[in-house]
Protein backbone atom coordinates (compact mmCIF):
# COMPACT_ATOMS: atom_id res chain seq x y z
CA UNK A 1 0.00 0.00 0.00
CA UNK A 2 1.22 3.47 -0.86
CA UNK A 3 2.56 5.58 1.96
CA UNK A 4 0.99 8.99 2.67
CA UNK A 5 3.06 12.13 2.10
CA UNK A 6 2.16 15.80 1.90
CA UNK A 7 3.67 16.65 -1.46
CA UNK A 8 4.99 14.85 -4.52
CA UNK A 9 6.86 16.85 -7.10
CA UNK A 10 6.92 14.88 -10.35
CA UNK A 11 8.48 14.89 -13.83
CA UNK A 12 11.27 17.31 -12.92
CA UNK A 13 14.79 17.62 -14.25
CA UNK A 14 16.06 16.76 -10.77
CA UNK A 15 19.47 17.79 -9.48
CA UNK A 16 20.13 16.16 -6.11
CA UNK A 17 23.72 17.44 -5.63
CA UNK A 18 24.99 14.43 -3.68
CA UNK A 19 28.65 13.52 -3.03
CA UNK A 20 30.74 14.90 -5.93
CA UNK A 21 28.44 15.72 -8.85
CA UNK A 22 25.05 17.25 -9.60
CA UNK A 23 23.10 13.96 -9.32
CA UNK A 24 20.92 14.48 -12.38
CA UNK A 25 17.75 12.38 -12.64
CA UNK A 26 15.64 12.93 -15.78
CA UNK A 27 11.90 12.64 -15.03
CA UNK A 28 12.79 12.86 -11.36
CA UNK A 29 10.54 13.17 -8.32
CA UNK A 30 10.74 14.22 -4.69
CA UNK A 31 8.38 13.27 -1.84
CA UNK A 32 7.97 15.67 1.08
CA UNK A 33 6.35 15.19 4.46
CA UNK A 34 6.22 18.12 6.85
CA UNK A 35 9.46 20.02 6.31
CA UNK A 36 11.51 16.96 5.32
CA UNK A 37 12.45 15.12 2.16
CA UNK A 38 11.06 11.60 2.46
CA UNK A 39 12.31 10.22 -0.84
CA UNK A 40 13.81 11.11 -4.21
CA UNK A 41 14.21 9.17 -7.42
CA UNK A 42 12.39 8.53 -10.67
CA UNK A 43 8.78 9.66 -11.09
CA UNK A 44 7.64 6.11 -11.87
CA UNK A 45 9.15 4.72 -8.68
CA UNK A 46 7.82 7.43 -6.36
CA UNK A 47 4.32 7.30 -7.89
CA UNK A 48 4.14 3.63 -6.89
CA UNK A 49 5.41 4.28 -3.38
CA UNK A 50 3.44 7.36 -2.26
CA UNK A 51 0.00 8.87 -2.00
CA UNK A 52 0.28 12.64 -1.84
CA UNK A 53 -2.14 15.30 -0.63
CA UNK A 54 -0.62 17.68 -3.19
CA UNK A 55 0.95 16.77 -6.51
CA UNK A 56 3.04 19.27 -8.40
CA UNK A 57 3.76 18.60 -12.06
CA UNK A 58 7.27 19.97 -12.58
CA UNK A 59 7.57 19.04 -16.25
CA UNK A 60 10.17 21.19 -18.03
CA UNK A 61 11.37 22.56 -14.70
CA UNK A 62 14.70 22.05 -12.96
CA UNK A 63 14.23 21.00 -9.33
CA UNK A 64 17.15 21.99 -7.15
CA UNK A 65 18.09 22.54 -3.53
CA UNK A 66 17.33 26.14 -2.53
CA UNK A 67 20.33 28.39 -3.11
CA UNK A 68 22.52 29.47 -0.21
CA UNK A 69 23.73 33.06 0.10
CA UNK A 70 26.29 32.81 2.88
CA UNK A 71 27.11 36.49 3.30
CA UNK A 72 24.73 39.44 3.13
CA UNK A 73 24.25 42.76 4.90
CA UNK A 74 20.53 43.23 4.31
CA UNK A 75 20.02 46.67 5.91
CA UNK A 76 22.12 48.22 3.14
CA UNK A 77 19.47 47.45 0.54
CA UNK A 78 17.99 50.88 1.40
CA UNK A 79 21.08 52.55 -0.07
CA UNK A 80 21.39 50.31 -3.11
CA UNK A 81 23.44 51.95 -5.80
CA UNK A 82 24.72 54.96 -3.85
CA UNK A 83 28.35 53.89 -3.39
CA UNK A 84 29.59 52.73 -6.77
CA UNK A 85 32.66 53.31 -8.89
CA UNK A 86 34.65 54.76 -6.01
CA UNK A 87 37.98 53.94 -4.39
CA UNK A 88 38.30 53.49 -0.60
CA UNK A 89 34.74 52.18 -0.73
CA UNK A 90 34.19 51.41 2.94
CA UNK A 91 35.44 54.74 4.26
CA UNK A 92 34.45 57.01 1.40
CA UNK A 93 31.51 55.12 -0.12
CA UNK A 94 29.63 53.42 2.69
CA UNK A 95 30.63 55.10 5.96
CA UNK A 96 28.99 58.48 5.19
CA UNK A 97 25.65 56.67 4.94
CA UNK A 98 26.30 54.24 7.77
CA UNK A 99 26.11 56.93 10.45
CA UNK A 100 22.62 57.91 9.31
CA UNK A 101 21.08 54.46 9.08
CA UNK A 102 18.18 54.62 11.53
CA UNK A 103 16.45 51.50 12.85
CA UNK A 104 13.35 51.74 10.66
CA UNK A 105 15.44 52.22 7.52
CA UNK A 106 17.64 49.25 8.44
CA UNK A 107 14.61 47.04 8.93
CA UNK A 108 13.10 48.22 5.65
CA UNK A 109 16.38 47.31 3.94
CA UNK A 110 16.34 43.85 5.47
CA UNK A 111 12.76 43.22 4.37
CA UNK A 112 13.57 44.38 0.85
CA UNK A 113 16.71 42.26 0.62
CA UNK A 114 15.06 39.12 1.98
CA UNK A 115 12.30 39.56 -0.60
CA UNK A 116 14.84 40.07 -3.39
CA UNK A 117 16.86 37.00 -2.39
CA UNK A 118 13.86 34.76 -1.85
CA UNK A 119 12.29 35.74 -5.16
CA UNK A 120 15.51 34.79 -6.95
CA UNK A 121 15.80 31.31 -5.48
CA UNK A 122 17.78 31.87 -2.28
CA UNK A 123 16.28 29.94 0.63
CA UNK A 124 19.17 30.22 3.12
CA UNK A 125 20.46 33.69 3.96
CA UNK A 126 23.60 34.38 5.93
CA UNK A 127 23.01 37.90 7.18
CA UNK A 128 25.50 40.07 9.08
CA UNK A 129 24.18 43.16 10.86
CA UNK A 130 23.73 44.96 14.15
CA UNK A 131 21.14 42.95 16.10
CA UNK A 132 18.49 45.64 16.31
CA UNK A 133 15.07 44.70 17.55
CA UNK A 134 12.97 43.32 14.72
CA UNK A 135 15.86 42.09 12.55
CA UNK A 136 15.63 38.36 13.25
CA UNK A 137 11.84 38.55 13.25
CA UNK A 138 11.93 39.45 9.56
CA UNK A 139 13.54 36.11 8.69
CA UNK A 140 11.16 34.31 11.00
CA UNK A 141 8.13 35.94 9.38
CA UNK A 142 9.28 35.38 5.79
CA UNK A 143 9.76 31.70 6.60
CA UNK A 144 13.26 31.51 5.14
CA UNK A 145 16.28 29.76 6.63
CA UNK A 146 18.74 32.21 8.13
CA UNK A 147 22.19 32.17 9.63
CA UNK A 148 22.39 35.48 11.47
CA UNK A 149 25.61 37.09 12.65
CA UNK A 150 25.36 40.08 14.97
CA UNK A 151 28.22 42.45 14.22
CA UNK A 152 30.92 42.90 16.86
CA UNK A 153 33.47 45.68 16.51
CA UNK A 154 35.22 48.32 18.60
CA UNK A 155 34.60 51.18 16.20
CA UNK A 156 32.96 54.23 17.78
CA UNK A 157 29.71 54.73 15.83
CA UNK A 158 29.91 57.26 13.03
CA UNK A 159 33.63 57.87 13.34
CA UNK A 160 34.99 55.93 10.37
CA UNK A 161 33.89 58.49 7.79
CA UNK A 162 35.97 61.14 9.55
CA UNK A 163 39.25 59.22 9.72
CA UNK A 164 41.86 59.88 7.10
CA UNK A 165 42.81 57.12 4.66
CA UNK A 166 45.60 55.15 6.34
CA UNK A 167 44.99 56.67 9.78
CA UNK A 168 45.04 54.02 12.51
CA UNK A 169 41.52 53.45 13.92
CA UNK A 170 40.90 54.37 17.52
CA UNK A 171 39.36 51.22 18.96
CA UNK A 172 36.93 51.68 21.83
CA UNK A 173 36.88 48.59 24.04
CA UNK A 174 33.59 49.61 25.66
CA UNK A 175 31.87 49.58 22.25
CA UNK A 176 33.09 46.03 21.61
CA UNK A 177 32.24 44.83 25.13
CA UNK A 178 28.67 45.99 24.64
CA UNK A 179 28.49 44.40 21.18
CA UNK A 180 29.79 41.10 22.56
CA UNK A 181 27.15 41.11 25.31
CA UNK A 182 24.41 41.96 22.80
CA UNK A 183 25.60 39.23 20.44
CA UNK A 184 25.56 36.62 23.19
CA UNK A 185 22.07 37.62 24.31
CA UNK A 186 20.93 37.50 20.70
CA UNK A 187 22.47 34.06 20.18
CA UNK A 188 20.76 32.69 23.29
CA UNK A 189 17.42 34.03 22.07
CA UNK A 190 17.65 32.93 18.46
CA UNK A 191 20.08 30.03 17.94
CA UNK A 192 17.87 27.10 16.91
CA UNK A 193 14.70 29.21 16.83
CA UNK A 194 11.82 28.66 14.39
CA UNK A 195 12.19 24.89 14.55
CA UNK A 196 15.88 25.21 13.73
CA UNK A 197 15.44 27.48 10.72
CA UNK A 198 17.44 30.23 12.40
CA UNK A 199 20.98 29.74 13.62
CA UNK A 200 23.57 32.17 14.86
CA UNK A 201 27.29 32.78 14.37
CA UNK A 202 29.49 35.22 16.26
CA UNK A 203 30.83 38.06 14.14
CA UNK A 204 34.02 39.82 15.10
CA UNK A 205 33.79 42.07 12.05
CA UNK A 206 37.47 41.92 11.13
CA UNK A 207 40.87 41.49 12.77
CA UNK A 208 41.56 45.24 12.49
CA UNK A 209 38.29 46.25 14.14
CA UNK A 210 38.74 44.70 17.61
CA UNK A 211 41.63 44.48 20.01
CA UNK A 212 43.60 41.25 20.21
CA UNK A 213 42.18 40.53 23.67
CA UNK A 214 38.62 40.99 22.49
CA UNK A 215 39.21 38.77 19.47
CA UNK A 216 40.47 36.06 21.81
CA UNK A 217 37.48 36.59 24.11
CA UNK A 218 35.06 36.11 21.18
CA UNK A 219 36.95 33.00 20.12
CA UNK A 220 36.57 31.47 23.60
CA UNK A 221 32.88 32.38 23.73
CA UNK A 222 32.23 30.85 20.31
CA UNK A 223 33.90 27.61 21.36
CA UNK A 224 31.97 27.51 24.64
CA UNK A 225 28.62 28.20 22.95
CA UNK A 226 29.26 25.87 20.00
CA UNK A 227 28.92 28.69 17.47
CA UNK A 228 30.93 29.35 14.32
CA UNK A 229 32.83 32.60 13.83
CA UNK A 230 31.87 34.63 10.75
CA UNK A 231 34.55 37.18 10.00
CA UNK A 232 35.80 39.38 7.17
CA UNK A 233 39.41 38.39 6.51
CA UNK A 234 41.93 40.39 4.47
CA UNK A 235 39.11 42.53 3.11
CA UNK A 236 41.08 45.02 1.12
CA UNK A 237 44.34 46.88 1.43
CA UNK A 238 42.79 49.11 4.11
CA UNK A 239 42.66 46.15 6.51
CA UNK A 240 46.13 44.89 5.66
CA UNK A 241 47.49 48.40 6.20
CA UNK A 242 45.84 48.62 9.64
CA UNK A 243 47.15 45.17 10.64
CA UNK A 244 50.71 45.88 9.56
CA UNK A 245 50.67 49.20 11.40
CA UNK A 246 49.16 47.69 14.56
CA UNK A 247 50.83 44.28 14.73
CA UNK A 248 53.51 44.22 12.05
CA UNK A 249 51.72 41.30 10.40
CA UNK A 250 49.30 40.69 7.57
CA UNK A 251 45.90 39.36 8.65
CA UNK A 252 46.35 35.65 7.83
CA UNK A 253 49.63 35.42 9.78
CA UNK A 254 48.09 37.32 12.69
CA UNK A 255 45.03 35.04 12.79
CA UNK A 256 47.27 32.00 12.67
CA UNK A 257 49.30 33.36 15.58
CA UNK A 258 46.26 33.97 17.80
CA UNK A 259 44.69 30.58 17.04
CA UNK A 260 41.81 31.76 14.85
CA UNK A 261 42.43 29.47 11.90
CA UNK A 262 40.35 26.32 12.34
CA UNK A 263 37.09 24.78 11.15
CA UNK A 264 35.11 27.11 13.40
CA UNK A 265 36.00 30.06 11.15
CA UNK A 266 33.95 31.21 8.18
CA UNK A 267 36.39 33.62 6.49
CA UNK A 268 34.75 36.12 4.16
CA UNK A 269 36.40 37.67 1.10
CA UNK A 270 40.19 37.03 1.40
CA UNK A 271 40.36 39.94 -1.05
CA UNK A 272 43.99 40.74 -0.37
CA UNK A 273 45.12 37.22 0.58
CA UNK A 274 47.81 35.73 -1.63
CA UNK A 275 47.29 32.26 -3.08
CA UNK A 276 49.76 30.94 -0.50
CA UNK A 277 47.83 32.58 2.33
CA UNK A 278 44.56 31.21 0.94
CA UNK A 279 46.09 27.73 0.87
CA UNK A 280 47.25 28.03 4.49
CA UNK A 281 43.77 29.09 5.60
CA UNK A 282 42.21 26.21 3.65
CA UNK A 283 44.64 23.72 5.24
CA UNK A 284 43.51 24.88 8.67
CA UNK A 285 39.96 23.68 7.96
CA UNK A 286 38.52 27.21 7.95
CA UNK A 287 35.86 27.84 5.32
CA UNK A 288 35.62 30.70 2.84
CA UNK A 289 32.84 32.88 1.47
CA UNK A 290 33.48 34.25 -2.00
CA UNK A 291 31.56 37.44 -2.88
CA UNK A 292 32.46 37.81 -6.55
CA UNK A 293 30.13 40.66 -7.50
CA UNK A 294 30.79 42.73 -4.41
CA UNK A 295 34.57 42.45 -4.43
CA UNK A 296 34.68 42.97 -8.18
CA UNK A 297 32.77 46.23 -7.84
CA UNK A 298 34.34 47.48 -4.61
CA UNK A 299 37.95 46.50 -5.18
CA UNK A 300 38.29 45.34 -8.79
CA UNK A 301 39.74 42.08 -7.47
CA UNK A 302 39.00 38.35 -7.91
CA UNK A 303 39.68 36.73 -4.51
CA UNK A 304 41.77 33.52 -4.41
CA UNK A 305 38.86 31.09 -4.06
CA UNK A 306 40.25 28.83 -6.76
CA UNK A 307 43.47 28.38 -4.78
CA UNK A 308 41.42 27.89 -1.60
CA UNK A 309 39.35 25.09 -3.19
CA UNK A 310 42.36 23.55 -4.90
CA UNK A 311 43.88 23.09 -1.45
CA UNK A 312 40.85 21.27 -0.10
CA UNK A 313 38.90 24.23 1.30
CA UNK A 314 35.12 24.60 1.24
CA UNK A 315 33.85 27.75 -0.49
CA UNK A 316 30.35 29.23 -0.17
CA UNK A 317 29.08 32.12 -2.28
CA UNK A 318 27.77 35.42 -0.92
CA UNK A 319 26.17 38.51 -2.41
CA UNK A 320 27.35 40.92 0.33
CA UNK A 321 25.53 44.25 0.37
CA UNK A 322 23.49 46.23 -2.12
CA UNK A 323 25.48 49.40 -1.47
CA UNK A 324 28.46 47.70 -3.09
CA UNK A 325 27.15 44.83 -5.18
CA UNK A 326 23.74 46.32 -6.03
CA UNK A 327 22.14 42.89 -6.35
CA UNK A 328 21.53 40.00 -3.95
CA UNK A 329 20.81 37.39 -6.57
CA UNK A 330 22.67 34.08 -6.44
CA UNK A 331 22.13 33.35 -10.12
CA UNK A 332 24.14 36.50 -10.80
CA UNK A 333 26.78 35.48 -8.27
CA UNK A 334 27.19 32.05 -9.87
CA UNK A 335 27.78 33.52 -13.30
CA UNK A 336 30.18 36.21 -12.04
CA UNK A 337 32.11 33.60 -10.04
CA UNK A 338 32.63 31.39 -13.07
CA UNK A 339 33.45 34.29 -15.37
CA UNK A 340 35.82 36.18 -13.09
CA UNK A 341 37.86 33.09 -12.28
CA UNK A 342 38.11 32.02 -15.92
CA UNK A 343 39.31 35.53 -16.71
CA UNK A 344 41.72 35.69 -13.75
CA UNK A 345 43.43 32.50 -14.87
CA UNK A 346 42.84 33.00 -18.62
CA UNK A 347 41.46 29.45 -18.62
CA UNK A 348 37.86 28.57 -19.59
CA UNK A 349 38.06 25.20 -17.80
CA UNK A 350 38.37 26.87 -14.37
CA UNK A 351 35.25 26.82 -12.19
CA UNK A 352 32.91 24.99 -14.56
CA UNK A 353 29.16 25.52 -14.17
CA UNK A 354 28.53 22.34 -12.17
CA UNK A 355 31.23 23.30 -9.65
CA UNK A 356 29.78 26.76 -9.17
CA UNK A 357 26.28 25.31 -8.74
CA UNK A 358 27.67 23.10 -5.98
CA UNK A 359 29.22 26.15 -4.31
CA UNK A 360 25.75 27.75 -4.23
CA UNK A 361 24.18 24.57 -2.79
CA UNK A 362 25.90 21.62 -1.09
CA UNK A 363 29.40 23.07 -0.77
CA UNK A 364 27.94 26.30 0.61
CA UNK A 365 25.87 24.29 3.09
CA UNK A 366 28.96 22.44 4.31
CA UNK A 367 30.92 25.68 4.53
CA UNK A 368 28.36 27.22 6.90
CA UNK A 369 28.06 24.09 9.01
CA UNK A 370 24.62 23.02 7.72
CA UNK A 371 25.75 20.27 5.35
CA UNK A 372 23.77 17.64 7.21
CA UNK A 373 20.51 19.61 6.88
CA UNK A 374 20.40 21.41 3.52
CA UNK A 375 22.24 21.89 0.22
CA UNK A 376 21.28 18.60 -1.43
CA UNK A 377 18.10 16.63 -2.08
CA UNK A 378 18.56 13.59 0.13
CA UNK A 379 16.27 11.58 2.36
CA UNK A 380 15.92 13.19 5.77
CA UNK A 381 17.14 16.64 4.73
CA UNK A 382 15.06 19.80 4.92
CA UNK A 383 12.76 20.35 1.94
CA UNK A 384 14.31 23.67 0.90
CA UNK A 385 13.63 23.32 -2.81
CA UNK A 386 13.34 25.56 -5.84
CA UNK A 387 11.92 25.00 -9.29
CA UNK A 388 13.32 26.84 -12.30
CA UNK A 389 11.02 27.07 -15.31
CA UNK A 390 13.14 25.87 -18.24
CA UNK A 391 10.53 27.02 -20.76
CA UNK A 392 11.78 30.58 -20.39
CA UNK A 393 13.28 31.79 -23.69
CA UNK A 394 16.73 32.22 -22.16
CA UNK A 395 16.69 28.61 -20.92
CA UNK A 396 15.43 27.04 -24.15
CA UNK A 397 16.13 24.47 -25.57
CA UNK A 398 16.59 21.69 -23.04
CA UNK A 399 19.12 19.20 -24.41
CA UNK A 400 20.12 15.84 -23.00
CA UNK A 401 21.95 14.63 -26.08
CA UNK A 402 24.67 14.76 -27.31
CA UNK A 403 25.42 16.87 -24.23
CA UNK A 404 23.37 18.01 -21.26
CA UNK A 405 22.91 21.77 -21.24
CA UNK A 406 20.69 22.45 -18.22
CA UNK A 407 23.44 23.11 -15.66
CA UNK A 408 25.44 25.48 -17.90
CA UNK A 409 22.21 27.33 -18.67
CA UNK A 410 21.27 27.57 -14.98
CA UNK A 411 24.63 29.16 -14.23
CA UNK A 412 25.28 31.23 -17.36
CA UNK A 413 21.78 32.09 -18.66
CA UNK A 414 19.26 31.99 -15.79
CA UNK A 415 18.42 35.28 -14.13
CA UNK A 416 16.38 34.07 -11.18
CA UNK A 417 13.50 36.31 -12.13
CA UNK A 418 10.42 35.66 -10.06
CA UNK A 419 8.37 34.63 -13.07
CA UNK A 420 10.59 31.63 -13.64
CA UNK A 421 10.85 30.46 -10.06
CA UNK A 422 8.81 28.74 -7.45
CA UNK A 423 10.10 27.72 -4.09
CA UNK A 424 9.26 25.58 -1.14
CA UNK A 425 10.53 25.72 2.36
CA UNK A 426 9.31 22.86 4.38
CA UNK A 427 5.65 22.30 3.69
CA UNK A 428 4.73 24.96 1.23
CA UNK A 429 5.91 28.09 -0.45
CA UNK A 430 2.77 29.85 0.76
CA UNK A 431 4.33 30.31 4.18
CA UNK A 432 6.61 32.88 2.59
CA UNK A 433 3.65 35.00 1.52
CA UNK A 434 5.20 36.03 -1.79
CA UNK A 435 4.20 33.18 -4.07
ZN1 LIG B 1 30.53 41.72 4.53
Task: Kindly describe this structure.
The chain has helices at residues 43-49, 89-98, 103-118, 135-142, 173-190, 212-225, 237-247, 251-257, 275-283, 292-299, 305-310, 330-345, 353-359, 362-367, 406-412; strands at 3-15, 24-33, 36-42, 50-57, 61-65, 67-72, 122-129, 145-152, 198-200, 203-204, 229-233, 265-269, 287-290, 315-317, 384-389, 421-425. It has 435 residues and is an alpha/beta fold. It folds into two domains: 3-65 and 376-432, Urease, subunit C, domain 1 (Roll), CATH 2.30.40; 67-367, Alpha-Beta Barrel (TIM Barrel), CATH 3.20.20. Helix 9 links the parallel strand 12 (265-269) and strand 13 (287-290). Helix 13 packs across helix 15 (406-412). The longest helix has 18 residues, at 173-190. The chain starts with a strand and ends in a 10-residue tail after the last strand. The model is unreliable at 426-435 (pLDDT under 50). The chain binds zinc ion. The site of zinc ion has 6 residues, from loops.
Amino acid sequence: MAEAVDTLILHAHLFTMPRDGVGYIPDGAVAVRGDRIVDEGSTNTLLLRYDAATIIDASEHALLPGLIDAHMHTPWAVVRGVAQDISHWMQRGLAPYARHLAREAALAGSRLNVLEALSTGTTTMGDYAHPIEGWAEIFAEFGVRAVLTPTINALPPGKMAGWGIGELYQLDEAVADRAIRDALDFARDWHGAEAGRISIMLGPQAADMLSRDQLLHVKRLAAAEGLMIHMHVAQGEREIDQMVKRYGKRTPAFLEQIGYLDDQLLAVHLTEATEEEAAEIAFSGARMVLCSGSIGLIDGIVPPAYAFRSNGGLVALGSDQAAGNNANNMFGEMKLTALFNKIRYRDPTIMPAWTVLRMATIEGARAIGLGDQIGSIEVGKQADLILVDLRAPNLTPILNSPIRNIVPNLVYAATGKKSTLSWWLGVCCCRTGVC
